[in-house]
């Protein structure tokens, strides 16, 4: 597992923790399968470009609404930008 894989795994877990979502709940919100979210968190796979874009948009939306606070270094290392 490389740094981006670890960062994405940590990011996914942190998003779920802060929003009190199960893997299934997050999967529904991103329109992906539960298995996909599970594999991301376990570092088994990386999201597709589309899924990564959906995850990034979801993060931005939740941050803008004040429901999610993520450290910049975690967002940057996972390949997302808050701005």
Textual characterization of the structure:
The protein has 83 residues and is an all-alpha fold. The chain has one domain (3-77): Orthogonal Bundle (434 Repressor (Amino-terminal Domain)). The protein is 66% helix and 0% strand. The protein has 5 helices and no strands. Helix 2 packs across helix 3. The chain is globular and about 30 Å long.
Q: How would you sum up the global shape?
A: globular
- The helix-strand sequence is HHHHH
Instruction: Give the low-pLDDT segments.
Output: none
If you consult CATH, what is the topology?
434 Repressor (Amino-terminal Domain)
**Whole-number count of domains:** 1
- Determine the strand fraction and express it as a percent band: under 5%
CATH class: Mainly Alpha
Secondary-structure arrangement, i.e. CATH architecture: Orthogonal Bundle
What is the tally of beta strands?
0
The chain-level structural class is: mainly alpha
What is the count of helical runs? 5
Mean of the pLDDT scores? 88
First-last Cα distance: 27 Å
Using only C-alpha atoms, the radius of gyration works out to: 11 Å
Query: Considering DSSP H and I runs of 4 or more, what fraction of the residues is helical?
Result: 55-70%
What's the CATH H-level homologous superfamily?
lambda repressor-like DNA-binding domains
Describe the sheet with the most strands. Answer: none
